[in-house]
Amino acid sequence: RIFYIFIDERLDIVDAFVNDSSIRTFIAQDFLGRVPDFERLVRKFIRKKANLEDCYKIYVAVNKMPKLIEYIGEFNGPKKGVLDHLIVVPIREMIDVFSKYIEMIETTIDMGRIGNHEFVIKPNYDKDLQECREKQIELESKMHDDLTTICNKLSSHLSTTPSRSKKNGAESSKEPIRLVYDPKQGGWLYRINRKESATLQKQLSNITINFITILIYQKK
Question: Which residues, 6 or more positions from 215, have their beta carbon under 8 angstroms from its beta carbon?
Answer without folding.
Answer: 205, 206
